[in-house]
Design goal:
By secondary structure, this protein is an alpha/beta fold. The chain is 36% helix and 16% strand. Helix 10 packs parallel to helix 13. The protein binds iron/sulfur cluster.
Amino acid sequence: MIYFQSLTQEELAQLLLPVSRVTTRSGEMNEELEKKSVKRAQYRAKQIFHWVYQRYVLEWDQMSDLSKDLRTWLKENVEIYRLKETVSRQGLDGTHKFLWGLPDGKTIESVIIPAALQEKKNAFGNAPDGGSFEIDQDDEDSENSRGDIEALKGYRKVSSPTKSAFAGRKASDSNLSSESWSRLTACISSQVGCAMACKFCLTGVQGLDRHLQTHEIVTQVHELRMRAPITNIVFMGMGEPLHNFESVVKACQIMLDQDGMNFSKRKVTISTSGLVSAIEELGKRVDVSLAISLNASNDEQRSQIMPVNKKWNIEALMTACRNYPLGSHRRITFEYVMLKDFNDTLEDAARVAKLVRGIPSKLNLIPFNEHSGSEFKRPNDESVKKFQQYLLDRNITCTVRISRGRDISAACGQLRSLFGSARGTDKHRDRSEQQPQA
Ligand code: SF4
């Protein structure tokens, strides 16, 4: 059985060609009929992409404009993959986290992260309810169309949040109101675990179990879209997407396909820890936005927390960024996880300013989301603000991201640690004994 979500539209058309043949009455073939057959297969592939990705129909029998023979063939040969929802939690800020069970007993995470319209007004100031910071909004995201915003108005939370304070802010119903959201970002995983071993990251501590296949990546977005009007996709969940290069590139092609998920190239972002050779290749293969997990201002510091830096240092990384084929008005996002007394000084800010100079870019400061798997601490609000101001004063676009979903273990790898099959947990040990089911 082939999983539908593992196929690009072209691959599906190829698969359908033998059952789309047009022949003469006597069953013969000629060049003209061969061309007709190819067109027929392509047309059918397009119809099926519309049914699944745009109309969310998941039963072959319900695709009423396909012939009965074709539907029967599809039932016997192609499966529309589903992810099993194991845990679903919504936080007080509307962040909604999902843990999916895979047939081999592994688990992965995806998160829906809303961005609020009201927060935009306060991009560099105080939150309206007295919280300290705002947000990861930026110019490119602000281009989300009126249509996107209208679509969000129909979306409501799908589970009740727990009634406790969120991130030191008082819970209010407006946090959960889709009326005030400007976008819903799907943050998805590309691997079960991760091999990159970044010191501040819970997934990094857990190690790599396996790569996700294309259908497992695509289906995360598909499942989320069946629950909410997703406007943006970021590969910032579990895993290093460029370590699973081919599957991720193909998943992006399906997400960008106008007959498929139909996302704009600006709204699909791959975030990498810095696999330089893969960044170079990515630019040639698919046109998506790029984010770099920088997190340090010099090599010595970066190598301490990100082993990848020993292979590709900051200079090599910045060269790859300068060469990345950005379209007009597009920028690379540099993510900078701020760690108390490690990379949060004004000297660090000065070095960062120098590094990104000349690269069309924006910086996203992320005060560390503390978790039990790491010794690092979150810097205080004052030092984050000073760091941000230093960069703003030098005309570098710089936002501060609130850690989303802190009340629901939304940091990378946390939900999987609590409920899933993370290495070292009892559940991982139990499941590792089991045979894969499919
Ligand atoms: S931060 Fe990203 S690349 Fe680094 S270990 Fe975590 S998941 Fe992997």
